[in-house]
Structure formats: C-alpha cells, structure tokens
Amino acid sequence: MARLLKSPLLSVLLFLLSSTDADINVADFGAKGDGKTDASEAFLAAWAAACSSSKPATIYVPPKKYFLRPVVFRGPCNNSGITFRMDAILVAPDYKEMPSSENWLMFDDVDGVSVLGGYLDGRGSSLWKCKSVSKNCPGAATSLGFYSSKNIAVQKLTSINSKLGHIVVHTCQNVVLQKVLIHAADQSPHTDGIHVQNSINISVFNTGIKTGDDCISIGPGTTNLQVQGVACGPGHGISIGSLAKDLEEEGVQNVVVQRVVFTGTQNGLRIKSWGRPSNGFVRGVVYKHVVMKNVKNPIVIDQNYCPRNENCPYQDSGVQISGISYRDIKGTSATKVAVKFDCSPTAPCKDIGLQDINLTYQSKPAQSSCQNARGVAHGVIVPPSCLIQ
Ligand SMILES: *[C@@H]1O[C@H](CO)[C@@H](O)[C@H](O)[C@H]1NC(C)=O
Ligand SMILES: *[C@@H]1O[C@H](CO)[C@@H](O)[C@H](O)[C@H]1NC(C)=O
Ligand SMILES: *[C@@H]1O[C@H](CO)[C@@H](O)[C@H](O)[C@H]1NC(C)=O
C-alpha cells in the first residue's frame, strides 16, 4: 500500500476506491497485477469470498494488468448479487502455455452476476498464425463463457484478440450484454463475437463488433433474443445457425434484430442450415432498421450449407423456417445478388415478409434470388421480390 501511494494517480484511484462500496479487492487476495504473475488463484479466492457471502458482494479489480490462466467462477452461491467491477486488463496465456480448456474465463451455474468494465486480451494472434499453417494447434478457448446461469449483466466490457469466440452464452436465462466492444482481426479464424445457444431472454444492446467470424451467432435452442444498436464489421454478419447439425435439435424462436449497421461484412442478416435432416426450426424473426454498407450477402437464407461437401451432399435440410420479416433494410451490396433465399425443397421457407427494402449494387438495383421461398412484399422493394405467395 505504502509503495502504491507514491504514485499520485494511484492515490487518487485508491481514494475513489475507498469511497465506493467495493467490499472485496482481488489485491487483498494476493493478485499481483504485473501482467506476468499468475493471478488466477487470487481471483478464485476473491470469488469464493463473494460467493460464500450471504449478502450481495462486489469484487473490485484495480487498474492493473492481471495474468490469468483459465478460471471457472462456479456457483451456486449464497447470494444472487455478485458484481465484478473491473478497471483492469486481464491477459490470457499464449496458446502454447494455455492449459486445455474450452473457456479462458467461465461462469458456471451462477445467478445474479454482473461484470462491469474490464478489458480482456485473449492474445489469440499467435494461435491464428499457427492455425493458418497447421491443423493441430493447441490452446483454443473462448474468452468469456456463461453456462447454466441466470440474471447476468455484462456492461462496458472490451474483448480483444480472442483465441476462439469472444463471448458465449450457453444454457442461460435473462442475460443482458450492453456497451460491449469486441475486436479481432478480420481474418482471425473462428472468433465469433457473441454466440448464444440453448438460452432464453437474452439481450445485446449498443455493442460494436469487429471480428473474423460471425459478429453474433445464434445457435439451436435460442428463444427471445433481442439485438439492438449493433455495429458489425468486419465480420461474417449476424447469423442464425448453423442449424441442422443434429437430427434432434431445438428450434430458434422470437428473435428481434434492429438498428444494426453492417460495414464491409461477408453477410448481413443470415440464416443458415446444413443440408441435412433435422427436426429443428426457425420461427418468428424480425429484422428492422438495418443499414448495409458494402456487404457481400446482405440478406441470405442458405439451407444448403455443406462445407467441403462432407456428410451432406444431395440431402435437403429438414429445418422449417417460417415467419421471417425484413423491414426497412437499406444500403449497398458488394455483390450482384443482395437478397438470396435458398430454402429447402422438402421444408420450403414460408411467411417471409419484405417491406421497404432498398439494396443497390454499384449504384444500380441489386438482384434477388429465390428457391422454395414463400411470402409477401409490401412497399418499396429493391431488388424486386422473387417470393412466391
Ligand atoms: C454458504 O453458506 C454456508 C453457511 O455459512 C456455508 O457452509 C457454505 O459453504 C456457503 N456456500 C458457498 C458456496 O460458499
Ligand atoms: C423471459 O421473459 C419473460 C418476459 O419478460 C418472462 O415472463 C419469463 O418468465 C422469462 N423466462 C425466463 C425463463 O426467465
Ligand atoms: C434506393 O436507394 C438509392 C441510393 O440511396 C436511391 O438513389 C434510390 O432512389 C432508392 N430507391 C428507391 C425506390 O427508394
């Protein structure tokens, strides 16, 4: 403490800290904050203290750089109000030193956790380099995962250079992610920004995502997802899918995506399923007030996804897609075909609604293409609709 007080900036910060309600400080548990010394045991000890408390607790992480190995913050806890208040940078091990683990930072079976602030440096770039020349690179892990948890809030968090996905929400309910910033190189492999799966009541608000894979990917079993105020790009867009990976699969329903700007992305609004039998479905999706800036596939439903033609050639997707509405979608396409509905012959898409669409390619109307797609169009529709009634 005395040594820290030598720095005027730190003393101000310490003063601010002492005037807040932070009742647990990772420094008190021996977290070093020199960016090198492993602080994971200290973080886990702070977590254990907060989790065992019968009252809500705040874990404060001061403005330093903490090196963390993979950690799991596990519940259930004795209170449902644990806040991580982070002014810190958390750094992951290099992939060569990364213990095998699906997540770097993981919350499991918790109720009522907020993560406020924080800057996660996944240090993924050496792994991406390895992956570009080898199939056997160890150490890939999601940066931040929430599993089997409820009543979660993440605010003002930044995630850069994840080794795999940035943030995963899996088997959760009532999760709000807002003012999150996500950044990884546009060619970085499998760095999905936010992946949601098997979860209910999930919101993503006012978030900026630049990454190498999907900005947001929406997996099977997602119900009541709200995405509002997102800037995406570079990246692969906002994708529902890939679905039909399994024969028995949960559906995706009640998804609203609004006020999103896509800039230079591979896709905009995409739904994709493998060309394989499945009892999964997509039902009740509203896309509205979306701006496309030079997007390769602004609106796309692809039910014939079959990379490398493995395990699916000549099969039809069983995933039933229905009740998908596109309203007020404007801007520029980087390819001729801006609207593509390539649906399954055995389970054609139905109840697709188009309203006030204006997508241009090289300052001229773009084109649309439909296979097995039924629905109706209202208002200005550029390119003209090819849906059958
Ligand atoms: C909850 O409190 C009880 C009683 O104080 C204690 O025995 C238990 O270990 C606590 N649980 C957790 C998860 O810390
Ligand atoms: C999801 O949200 C709705 C509406 O706010 C609420 O009624 C429902 O209980 C929530 N479901 C779960 C599983 O939390
Ligand atoms: C579509 O957008 C272009 C570019 O902004 C504009 O010039 C054109 O008039 C719009 N078309 C319609 C039918 O609104």
TrEMBL record:
What start and end residues bound the annotated signal peptide? 1-22
- Provide the GO biological process annotations: carbohydrate metabolic process; cell wall organization
Q: Which SMART domains match?
A: PbH1
Catalytic residues of the enzyme:
236
Q: Which InterPro entries match?
A: Glyco_hydro_28, PbH1, Pectin_lyas_fold, Pectin_lyase_fold/virulence
**Per the record's keyword annotation, is Cell division included, yes or no?**
no
* MF (Gene Ontology): polygalacturonase activity
Keywords, comma-separated and alphabetical: Cell wall, Cell wall biogenesis/degradation, Glycosidase, Hydrolase, Secreted, Signal
Per UniProt, subcellular location reads as: Secreted, Cell wall
Entry annotated with the keyword Cell wall biogenesis/degradation? yes
Q: Which family does it belong to?
A: Belongs to the glycosyl hydrolase 28 family.
Cross-referenced PANTHER family, in alphabetical order?
A: PTHR31375
Q: What is this protein called?
A: Polygalacturonase-like
What is the source species? Nelumbo nucifera (Sacred lotus)
